[in-house]
Structure formats: structure tokens, C-alpha cells
Queue: 2 jobs
Job 1
Amino acid sequence: MPDNIAQIGRQAALAAGAVMRLNYEQPHEITMKGAIDPVTETDYQCQDLIMAMIRRAFPDHGFLAEERVGEGGQPSSAAAPGCSGPAWEADPPAACRWIIDPLDGTVNFAHGCPAFCVSIALEADGVLEYGVIYDPMRDELFEGLRGGGATRNGRPIRVSATDRLDRALIATGFPYDIRERIPATMARLGRIVAVSQGLRRGGSAALDMCYVACGRFDGYFEENLKPWDTAAGLVILTEAGGKITTFDGGDYDIYSPNIATSNGVLHQKMLEYL
Ligand code: IPD
Ligand code: CA
Ligand code: CA
């Protein structure tokens, strides 16, 4: 693995964040990818910028990125393996692959709510090695390097020590196919609300994972996320001492259908209610 991975990933994340900050107050050009699933011109602009910066540094690396731009700037219907949505996947696959969510929290961004970020991960030979998530409105840069720890703006971060659910602040999110999942999802929310101190839905899965990593949240769970939603967060949260599984306690990977994350201490207790 090249040794300037973090340097290039960080530069790309900061550059994309600067674009989001510039565009935030401007009117947005919004296209719908599904009934409630928007994409803005800023999503495309950030993805293009990130990929160009990475390509310049690493011409032989591959990509798995959320937005695929086809003819006329419209998203293509081509799906990446294991994913139902449109995505850009390099062909042929490369040993080093960058997994990119150019703007996580697009609904917030489109509505002028300042909770969104860019999420970039590097996978080498199938192993996630590095993750960077940048929140441009709060100027918070989260990074994780496999075996090297996790940081927020360069300072080490750690998960919370909360060991009681009734003292735990838990976060969740709703997938874009939520309308097909209402009974099961609402029942799960009801169980967590009944036993936790509070439940939050921030609107950015990547930031939710960072907030567990730095102890602001004690746990976070969601269904049907995509690889680009969780890849960088996985490295950051693991390095910060967090635990990540599926709802039934199984091993989580970026293609898993659901994710349960916590500070570790609370994990088993939280799983009982999912
Ligand atoms: C979404 C956000 C949201 C989560 C959705 C994701 P996007 O990503 O992370 O918090 O609840 O499931 O799809 O579309 O804003 O990149
Ligand atoms: Ca996302
Ligand atoms: Ca996105």
C-alpha cells in the first residue's frame, strides 16, 4: 500500500468539503434517484473532484463511488455488485480501491440543514486500510488508519464508556426504501426508545459512525446501507475501540444488510432490542 494514502485521501476530503461549503447557500439543482432519494449537482461535483485528485496520485487504483454520471449528467442505472443503487465501479477491479460517498447527508444538504460530510475509504486487497470523513460545516476531520488509531482534527478519539442503556444516546437512520419497512423499523425504534436515554436521527450515516467513535453517541444502527455509507466509518470506529456487527451479532462487512455499532460495552444489551 502506498504510504501517502492518508495525505491524498485527506486532501480530497478537504477539497470536497470546501465545494460543499461554497455551494451550501446557493440554489441546488436536484435530481431524484428514487421516490425520496435526491442527488444534487454538488454530489457530482464532489465525486468528480475526489476521483480526479486520487487518479492523479494513483493512476492504477480503482473506485467504488456512489454517483455514476452518464450522458447529460444524469445518474446511470448501472448498479455496483451487491448494491441496488446507481454507482461507479472501476473495471477491471484493482488491488487498491477507493470507496467514496462524495456527499453523505444529501437530504440535509438539499434542505440547508448543516449536517453532511464526505466519506472516503481505501481498501487494499479486500481489507479496509484507511478512512477519512470530513464535516465541512463544523470543520471536523475524522480519520482512521488500520492499526494506527483514530483521530478528530489530529487528536486521538475513543468511544464512550457508557454501560447502561438508560444512560445511552443512540442514533439511527432510515434507508430510502423505508416506506417498504415501516412496521419492522418502527417496532425496532419503539423498543430502543423504551430502553435508551435518547434516540437521534441525524441524516448522515458516516457522521453517525464518527460520533460513536468519539463518544458523542453510545450506539448507532441502521438497515440497508451501502458500502460507501459505512466503509470509512468502519475503519474510524474500529480504531476508536468500537464494535460493529449485524443486528444478530454476526460479522459486519460493507455489503451486510444492516449495521449495529456501539462502544463495545453496550453492544450485547443493544442487540437484544434490535
Ligand atoms: C444517506 C444518509 C442517511 C441514511 C441513508 C443514507 P446519502 O446517504 O447516510 O443518514 O439514513 O440510509 O443513504 O444518500 O445522503 O449519501
Ligand atoms: Ca450516503
Ligand atoms: Ca451520498
Job 2
Amino acid sequence: MTRTPVANTFDDTTTTTTSADKDSLALLGLGAMGSALARTWLRAGHPLTVWNRTPARSAPFAAEGANVADSAADAVAANRLIVVCLLDDASLDVTLEGVDLRGKDLVNLTTGTPAQARARAEWTEARGARYLDGGIMAVPPMVGVPEAGGYVFYSGAREVFEEYGDTLGAPLGTKYVGADAGFAALHDVALLSAMYGMFAGATHAFALIRGEDIDPVAFAPLLGDWLVAMAPAVHQTAEQLSSGDYEKDVVSRLAMQVAGVPTFERTAEQQGVSTELLAPYFELMRRRLAMGSGDEDLTGVVDLLRGRG
Ligand code: FVH
């Protein structure tokens, strides 16, 4: 299994080679994300054992230098570091049922809730293994492309994170966010939730211009640039949450913003567009204003969502 080390981890033209100083590992799950991870580890020279529920998905990896295991148990038996990237938490139950995990290090890159991650950590430790949870902040084309900026949140066993730092960092950047196994999932879901809020706003914007003589392709850069320009507002929200002073450095008063809400509602109506994506947010803004918070901006809505106020 010892071959020449690769010169460039991310060079597509590099022939797959493995090196004795690279961690060997098993990867369970060769979906879109698992396949991208597998190829990056192979190109980086890691001896890799792969397993997938549907064997046809594993077969191409033999030609790329991977050991293809007949079962998840075989893949786990042959390695100490076990990375799992499956559809959901239930897939892990099925895949790892009856598999001997004693002395193994399990890194779970499957998206799940913080509670699932914490339960999986207990489940793993009860089986004599160490547990590190991961939340992937990337889509498959970003894997193995450092300049794309993708990374993985990790939480749980810090020793595992540190011991396999180079290996975990080969496909994507890494950010360790704490010993609580649920924190990677919490960071992951929080960021993805913000992303869906952004997509919801963009969806509403496209609906407003749809049907008019406005080219969506010409409109898109205006929309994208505006979202980028507004994104730094999260830092002020964070400062205000941290200090508890929601009126500090306010630029756009809540009273002013709520006064503008009917403009958004009427424009949507005139364009024949439902306000159902924005209406809950507008309702929360009005409720916060009714609490006498007109000199704040939007930070107080965080407390409303948490049932305070
Ligand atoms: N792809 C993406 O854009 C996102 C980016 C952020 C992170 N997610 C999460 O990564 C996990 C895997 O996602 P994926 O993109 O690889 O998903 P699929 O291509 O659908 O592959 C799913 C794999 O899971 C296997 N699988 C499903 N159910 C079971 C089961 N009951 N037992 C064993 N394996 C199972 C499936 O096997 P097969 O269908 O080929 O037999 C695939 O290997 C996921 O948590 C994302 O949220 C991806």
C-alpha cells in the first residue's frame, strides 16, 4: 500500500498514490458528498476503504485506488478512523448495527440535529469508540477546492480532531467549535437556516419582478450585490446581543422600518405576489414595536423568537 507521496493534493491530473505517512481511513457512504470526499482523500494519498449500501456506487473507486469493502463491518474492521457521510441519522443506525466499534474513532459528517449528535456521541462511547461530529458547510463541487472556502464544523472529542487534523483538513477546511458534540450541528443548522431566510427573500424579490419587462439575469447581480452589502449587519446584531444594548449605533430605527412595511405589502399586492414568505417577519417587527422598541433596529426580534416578549 506504500507508494510515492503526491505533490499536489488538488491537482485533477495527479495519479492517485498513497503514502505511509498518511492516515488510512474508512468512508461509509458514497453519495454526492461522500464520493467527493473519497476522491479528495485518494488524491491526497490516504489509503482509503470505502463502503456504500448500493455496491454499484463503490465499484468506480476500486479503479481510483480505494479498497472496496463488502460490508460496513469489514470497512470498519480494517481501519481505526471511520468517517460516515450518509443521508440521515437513521441511516447510521442501519449501517452500524452490530458493527464492532471498540477502539475506533468515529467521525460523523451526516447532517443531523444537535440532539442526534449528542445521542450519537453517547451511543458511540458506550461502544468503546471516540466520537467527533461534523457539519459540512460546502456543496460537493467545493470539496478539494480550497479557494472555494468550504469547511466543516467539528465538535466532540478534541483529541480526535487534533490527531487527524491533516486528514480531516484534506477535503475541506476545519473549524472546531467545542467539546459539546451537538455544537457542530447547531452551527451548521444555524448557518443553513440563515441561508434559507436569504433564499426566501430572494424568491420574493424575483416574484416581484416576474412578469415585468425586467430580465432576471440582469436583476440577479443587483440582488446578489445588495445581499452582500447588507450581510455585515449581522456583526451589529451580534454586538447588541452581546452587550444587551439594542439601541446602540442604530442606523435604521424599527419605528421607521415598520412604517415602511405597508409599502412592501402594497407593492406585493400590486404585483400579484403573495406576502406569505415575509408576513411572519413583518408581524414580529410590529409586535416588537408595540413593546415600545421603536428606537432599536431588528435585534429585539431574536428575543421574540425565543418567547421573550
Ligand atoms: N450534497 C450536498 O449538497 C450537501 C452539502 C452539505 C452536507 N450534506 C449532507 O451530507 C450527507 C450526505 O449527503 P449526499 O449529498 O452524499 O447525499 P446522497 O447523494 O443522497 O447520498 C446519500 C448516501 O446515504 C446512503 N444511504 C441512504 N439511506 C441509507 C440507509 N438506510 N442505509 C445505508 N446507507 C444509506 C446512500 O446510499 P445508496 O442510496 O447509494 O445506497 C448514499 O451513500 C447528508 O447528511 C447531507 O445532508 C450534503
